[in-house]
Design goal:
This protein has 345 residues and is α/β, with parallel strands linked by helices. The protein folds into 2 domains: 160 residues, 3-Layer(aba) Sandwich (Rossmann fold), CATH 3.40.50.2000; 163 residues, Rossmann fold, CATH 3.40.50.2000. Helices cover 37% and strands 15% of the residues. The protein contains 14 helices and 12 strands. The strands form 2 sheets. The chain has a 6-stranded parallel sheet, with helices on both faces. It has a 6-stranded parallel sheet with strand order 9-8-7-10-11-12, with helices on both faces. Helix 8 packs parallel to helix 14. The protein is globular and about 60 Å long. It starts with 7 loop residues before the first strand and ends with a helix.
């Protein structure tokens, strides 16, 4: 066994859902190249079920930065933080991979006490000053996040490809059955219309028109997913689309089951859409302010509907959808979806 194989390598990618999903190929590449290494991952507690029991992962280190941040001086939170730091240093990382490009990720890498802290160079990071926390910088401006993450393996002598999400390994310990109503309804398409940015959300009327056309032509029932705070949006679309229904997944594993079993998953540039793609489900992303080449389904340009306008791909957060989305007609979305379902895209 070589010294490289005995490495302890820590992945730092705590959030958000789409980013955690797109970091999974780093884990699979590490295990492929270093079968005897000890691999760990620091991830926000809400996303831990995605990785729990993953056969390539030895140590899962959940962190609750979001919850702790709401009451940072609460004694229970301070105790939890202390416990996390003990587990972090106890992992004994030789190498920490900062996949976040922020002060948060780089600080966790430094707190791990890893001798090698690898991350993107300052000009490639979301928070350039955070490069001060790392000691091996990789200058890589590859368009897609998956490729940028994989580029951090170069200092370890590990090839960046082929990228693999290993869908069968995701949610290894948590695969609840489909809700009874969904299972009884037969094959279905799943729409997740919500998004963190208002200008990533296609108008409800357009989504309703699109899923109605798809359902009529394909015979598939449409289920409209609702994340926390998105229930009213899902109900509005369901009310406008005959035969569809809103459904809220109570937790991430339940959402994973709904996505995995769908004949087609529709949505914007959101975590559930990227999760569905990683799980191997057919997807169709309708994108506006973010560039499909950087943020769309990985290596699947045929699975994106987007209009290129002079102001397209501004990557600016706004409260309402702009013409990059509002100008996309429902018929175009439906036509692309039906072509994907028929295998002709």
């Amino acid at each position: 066994m070589s010294g490289a194989e005995r490495l302890r390598v820590l992945i730092v990618r705590t959030s958000s859902l789409g980013d955690v999903v797109q970091a999974v190929p780093v884990l699979t590449a590490l295990r492929r190249a270093l079968p005897a290494a000890r691999l760990g991952w620091v991830v926000e507690e809400g996303y831990a079920p995605l990785l729990a029991g993953h056969p390539a992962l030895d140590d899962l280190l959940p962190v609750a930065l979001r919850r702790w941040g709401r009451a940072p001086l609460r004694p229970a939170h301070l105790a939890e933080l202390g416990g996390f730091l003990d587990r972090l240093t106890g992992f004994g990382a030789d190498v920490a991979l900062d996949l976040m490009g922020s002060h948060k990720g780089a600080a966790i890498a430094a707190l791990s006490l890893a001798g090698r802290r690898i991350g993107l160079a300052a000009r490639c990071r979301r928070e350039p000053e955070s490069a001060l926390w790392i000691n091996e910088a990789v200058a890589n401006e590859a368009p897609h996040a998956v490729d940028r993450y994989l580029s951090l393996l170069a200092p370890l002598g590990i090839p960046s490809g082929p990228a693999s999400f290993a869908p069968e390994a995701l949610f290894a310990r948590a695969r609840p059955p489909l809700p009874a109503a969904v299972a009884a309804g037969g094959p279905y398409l799943f729409l997740h219309p919500g998004a963190a940015w208002g200008n990533k959300r296609l108008p409800a009327a357009t989504w309703a028109d699109a899923v109605t056309q798809i359902a009529r032509a394909s015979g598939l029932r449409a289920w409209i997913g609702a994340g926390p705070g998105e229930e009213a949006l899902a109900r509005e679309i369901a009310a406008r689309a005959p035969g569809s229904a809103a459904i809220a997944a109570p937790d991430l594993p339940s959402l994973g089951t709904l996505l995995r079993e769908a004949r087609l998953v529709l949505g914007g540039d959101t975590g559930p859409l990227h999760l569905a793609h990683a799980l191997g489900s057919p997807v169709l992303a309708v994108m506006g302010p973010t560039d499909p080449g950087r943020h769309g389904p990985y290596r699947a340009p045929e699975r994106v509907v987007a209009h290129r306008l002079p102001c397209s791909f501004c990557h600016r957060r706004m409260a309402e959808p702009r013409p990059c989305l509002t100008a996309i007609p429902a018929g175009e979305i439906a036509a692309r979806a039906l072509a994907l379902l028929a295998g002709n895209a």
